[in-house]
Amino acid sequence: MKEIKEKIRALLTEMNKGAYEREELISLAMLSALSGESIFLLGLPGVGKSMVARRLKMAFKDAQSFEYLMSRFSIPDEIFGPVSISKLKDGDTYERVIDGYLPTADVVFLDEIWKAGPAIQNSLLTVLNEKIFRNGKQDIQLPLKAVIAASNELPAEGEGLEAMWDRFLIRYVVKPIVDKHKFISLITEEPEPCVIPENLKITTEEFYGIQEASHKMDIPWEIGELIFTIRKVLKEEKENLYESVDVTKTDLIEPPYVSDRRWKKVIGVMRTSAYLNGRDCVDISDCILLIHMLWDNSEQIQSMKKLIGQAIVNNMKRYGVDMMSQIEGKRFTKPMGELISPDGMHYVFVVDKEELLISKDEYQKLADGKIHYGQITSDNKMLVGDKPTSLKVRMTADGLAVNSFSYPLKRNSNLRTGSVKSMLESVTSEVDKQEKALTDMVNDNLFLLDYHKYAFLGKAFVNSKDNFIRKGY
Fold this sequence. Notes:
By secondary structure, this protein is an alpha/beta fold. It is built from 16 helices and 14 strands. It starts with a helix and ends with a helix.
């Protein structure tokens, strides 16, 4: 599997030559194609959307492409081919001449997709769903490997475009070049030509082999838990019922609807990513791809990034190094300062600002799990025994409980402060280790940018450390 990773890495390197700030887009277009899915690009004219489609076509051996700019006046003949007059006349068969049109293409680019009329949309749905085109009386299995659609707007509500929109699993916003030096290079220099060596091009056999092998990638239990957590938040966000992930009411005013069918396709993309990265299972870095597959409108993108980032960090805390159990164990078992004993025989606890004493030996008896009872003597000492009294006594994490009230044993406050500081340092150190582990995985993933490009992940780790501090760890 390492061989396929190196081939895809080299292929993406060639495809990115002269394409400024389009590394992520080209990688995602390749991933969508090799996953058997389609990708939608949202962006203004002139930002390189069609360029990506042309380069994707170059990545496949002996590939044919088809490009079309939709308008309100587009007719099916312009996309699927004209009706054969001879077959209609001689054989009374309504059949199209498809050579050179979409049904014979490997890579298809459809610009201004939402302007397509109902007749085109209906045929496209079958093409996108099943890679099948019905021509006359025959169902043709298409050689289609990639469909890229583009527009400078999202589908309008109430126009019956929901089914078409749902078929584009990966959705990407293409923005103008930001970096000053890259922009100046773009407008003043001849771009480096993109020429794909023949040995890097993907054959039809490799294409289907990748899809078959990807289906066998394992999904670890913790990844399934993460996906279910995000799904649960999206389903219940309106009622704000799920609070384990910190999503405020204003983050997802209208959360996206993600069907179970779409979730299954999402897992398919993650499996393909795992295979092409030379692994035998999906890992946490593949989950970052969710930011391109779960939003319905551009207003949801930032809040979805926040949700996914927090879910990833929470998942790493729970399954990565089992930090929660380590920290909680330290909290309850590591001394927070020496217990105060004025006479060497008793501990001190405070009730309503009054100091009471309990024998060290009797305090230890409380740990045996039995029900114990107590009484307070005239010299402010708690005596513990098995004879029922009005005071039921038990041990707590940092002291003892009398009936329904808990009282901590007095400790040396300076030592306690030092211990808390030490533990906070331990917590932040563990979080930093987890972030470093994720950084390494992200930077090794062919379909992701460098870790520092995903600011929402860094923010989620900062929030994780802040939460521990606020909770008093």
